[in-house]
Protein: CBS domain-containing protein
Organism: Streptomyces umbrinus
Amino acid sequence: MLVRDAMSTVVLTIGPAHTLRQAAALMSARRVGAAVVLDPDEGGLGILTERDILNSVGLGQSPDAERAHAHTTTDVVFAAPTWTLEEASLAMTHGGFRHLVVLDRGEPVGIVSVRDIIRCWAPLRQHAPA
């Protein structure tokens, strides 16, 4: 099975100046655990996850004052839609993260999460012979 078969095509994109509260509200409304952060000034893509927001709040930082750019991961590992789920899971395991931004021709077209992969693999394993 390929990443394109498992990924969510709902890609929430935010700017680096969004507050963490704004990012959390948008993520909650879209029911996603990560947002792609587009920074036109820096010319790159980053990712902000629910864990990034949780870590900030846990440190006592204000979600109304903290900006996405200060908590964005910018050394992102990107997946291609044609990667296998095994390749994606290995990249996640090796990197210690739970979300991969999926790029096609340099544009974000989806996000695949550990949960997406589990959803795909679980039905296959339920029917496997004992």
User: Anything to note?
Assistant: The first helix runs from residue 3 to 6.
